[in-house]
Amino acid sequence: MSDLVLNLRAIKGRAYPRAVGGLREPSWMFFDIFLPLLGIAAFIYYYRSLGAPEVYEGYVVIGGAMTAYWLNVLWSMATQFYWEKETGNLELYMMAPMSKMSVLAGMALGGMFLTSVRAISTIVLGIFIFDVRMSFSSPWLLVLAFLLTLLALYGLGMLFSSLYMLWGRGAWHLSNLMQEPIYLVSGFYFPVRELGFYVGIAASIIPMTLGLDSMRQLLFGDEANGLLPVWAELAVLTMLAVAFITAARYALRYMEFLGKREGRLVLRWQ
Asked: In angstroms, rounded to a whole number, what is the distance separating the alpha carbons of residues 183 and 69?
């Protein structure tokens, strides 16, 4: 079997349980789809009580949908190898002949599919329930912005996964630390430019910042109060995607070497 076929089968095999797992228990679909709407509703009614422009309700719906991807990257990508080590599965991955990057790619593809069910449902229900109006004047550019955002975001998750593998319990605390603050600095529920231009530029190291900003500009036009022109944000997202995935490849090799040398890839006396 060629290396290409082997790695493609590894990607399919790792993506399969995530894609199927989301449909395994119907009650989970209810919680994944309807419970996030409660938080979105709170922000929308808050903006309405203040008399904010209607476009802010669109910001909340898009931001609320994209939180699913950020949570998936933190808890199902970044911490995954740490959990695999805790359950004793990591040594099986290390002994298998395929590239470990194919395992991460499968995790990312399965996670994207699973999370998209929740995100798309949130947007559709948000449009109908709260009568949010969006303009789909540039659909292909919008799709490109969305795909580049996911590519850069999951590339970051792959890099974190490599680093978390050896950080042990620190990985849990780091994910907790990055969850809520990123909601603020990436502008999940408001235009990130409101934080100031330089703060927004600094927050752009997190792909969600420019991804949200570019998609809002394409959906709401000049009312989105964008941080940078759309073409510039797409260019930066492309560079972030290449940089994170390349860094993840080298970090995974280094951490694998370091883990084998210091004996930290498996749990002792398990």
From this structure: 12
